[in-house]
Specification:
- The chain has helices at residues 20-23, 34-45, 57-66, 85-91, 121-129, 137-143, 173-182, 199-213, 241-253, 276-287, 311-318, 359-368, 379-392, 401-406, and strands at residues 29-31, 53-54, 81-83, 98-103, 106-117, 148-156, 161-162, 187-193, 223-231, 262-268, 293-296, 326-329, 333-336, 341-344, 355-356, 411-412.
- The chain is of the alpha/beta class.
- The longest helix has 15 residues, at 199-213.
Length: 421
Amino acid sequence: MSYTGHNGKPIVERVSTENAAGRIKGLPRIPISKATAHEVISLSYGFFTPLTGFMGRQEVDGTLDKLALPDGTLWSIPIVFDLSADDIEKLGIEEGASAVLEYLDAPIATFDVTEIYEYDLQRLAEKTYGTTDPRHPGVKKTLAYKNRFIGGDITLINEPVFNEPFKSFWLTPKQHLDALAEKNWNHVVAHQTRNVPHTGHEALMKQAWLAANEDAPVDNLNTGVLVNAIIGQKRVGDYIDEAILLTQDALRTSGYFREDVHKVTFTLWDMRYAGPREAIFHAILRTNLGCTHHMFGRDHAGVGDFYHPYDSQNLLQEHRSELDIKPVFLRENWYCPECQEVTNSALCGHEAQAQSFSGSLIRSILTDEVKPTQKVMRHEVFEVVMESAIKYGQGSPFVTEEYLQDRLPVFTLNQLQGAES
């Protein structure tokens, strides 16, 4: 089978575990954060095809100024590795040499250093997010970078071991392509999510399925919805990761989607909330997972009032010819008491009577453990939320400080025998 990703580039797994302990002896060790470990894993398996490592200056400049890599391939988000000049000197990191990246006190990857450079953090923030306002979480992250960046290729030497329930939903890009081929899906529409689904989300996925099916015959169904959840850095008040995956899957197991048209997986990624630029990144990412279509709703990947609700859709439209995936643009859903159904604002004319899906209302329902009406959330989804809260969230479906401290990690790493520094 041919494994092809964004811009027709081959998906290459940079994974080499044989004799890893011996190959890294004597190399400097760089401890990395959870967010960086997520990017190391994604780079190594090809989620970020055609990238093979962390960006150098030329790649960052092109991404910021032209939304393109040096060869002209569309790219929208800088993928960078920061380290202080003092640590670079102390650890003996040099251009043209290799280093070992460590996470959870174990080696995870080798880093072939090709460039060490400085970069203007204000420029990096402004070009990526359209603002330097530190209230924007992406800007805050960017302005906290260390004063040097390192570019170079990454090779995974210690594959992550996923814990349940994550293990059941983890697929590499090549495994995604194999799984979709096994399902005989010719059209695959991606749904990006960090949420437990309410009926508005469910209806958006169903609307997107109909759009993605296009003119395909329906006597045999060869179109599917891939719910690709984002699993990354958590903040207090977010939904716990386990509840997100298990409730999305409950829509299928409870029959709200047919078995042959719905699948749930996840990607390790820490949201930048970069609005339009992140929407393009999501389109590229899901191309690398084998999707042919991607649904984009109102305020996709936005935060606060930093972007217009349809900025993401507009930028995607500008770059439509450079994408190998077809955007499906949707407006918001609401419940209409006149229509007596969940419907889309592009269709329903009862705007004055429309009842929006209030995040605070749903949050209060879940916090108070009051079973919602079916027009807000499927009862089976609610039950899975409550079960997840007990089993994984120390009693809460939302992230708490206790959850962050005591949760079972998404994945662990095995120690490499003989790899002690």
